[in-house]
Amino acid sequence: MSFKERLKTAREKRGMTLAELGEKINKTEATVQRYESGNIKNLKNDTIEAIAKALRVNPAYLMGWSDVVENFKTRKIPVLGIITCGDPILAEENIEEFRESIDDDLPSGNLFYLKTRGNSMTPTIPENSYVLIAQQSDVDDGDIAAVLVNGNTEATLKRIKRQGNIVMLMPDNSDYSPYIVTEDNPATILGKAIKFSADL
Predict the structure, then answer these.
(1) Which is the catalytic residue, given 13, 27, 158, 192?
(2) Which terminus of the chain is less hemmed in, N or C, by CB atoms within 10 Å?
């Protein structure tokens, strides 16, 4: 693999966006994008070392001089699709695919990804993003959560807002209306959104 391919692979395995990597190495998102496009003229050794440190890989691996990848223990995390009613959340029938993430940065407990299929949470979470969820039965007010709706068959991402005894699932996109949780419109919290990543 070329430098740009190794760089992109390492970044995606860490679940890190271009902007996040840029912040860690004091470069702009556009600069990191140029690196991944193959434009690496005058790329200094200290920049390569900074990238390797941020991604926890061997600098020699990035440059293609070695196939040894240091500190690159990964974990396969399921991506949930349509939820089968009555089955456990992480049942095989509910899993569309798996994504690998760097194990060192992952919280403990059960984890899964949801892929956003709409823009109700933009601009906070772009459409077609993979959102990492830590499975838990409740979240704090204002947190973004994965929530089961529509008879516990559809998992959606919404911000939790409470007013007295009323629970609302709030979109971050003002073009969408809140979902008010009632006996006729029940909802079950699956877990808290930790971070998101997106494929280019």
Answers:
(1) 158
(2) C
**Which is nearest to 192 in space by CA: 137, 150, 151?**
137
pLDDT tens across 76-114, in order?
Answer: 899 988 766 667 788 888 899 998 776 766 788 899 999
- Whether 133 contacts 124, CB under 8 Å: no
**Which residues make beta-bridge pairs with 197?**
130
Is the same domain home to 24 and 122? no
| In contact, 147 and 188? CB cutoff 8 Å | yes
* Marked catalytic residue, from 120, 129, 192, 197: 120
Task: Answer yes or no: is 151 within a domain.
Answer: yes
Q: Out of 33-37, 100-104, 192-196, which region has the weakest mean confidence (pLDDT)? A: 100-104
Structural domain total, the chain: 2
Catalytic-residue membership of 197: no
Q: What is the pTM of this model?
A: 0.65
Tokens 């003229």 sit on residue: 41
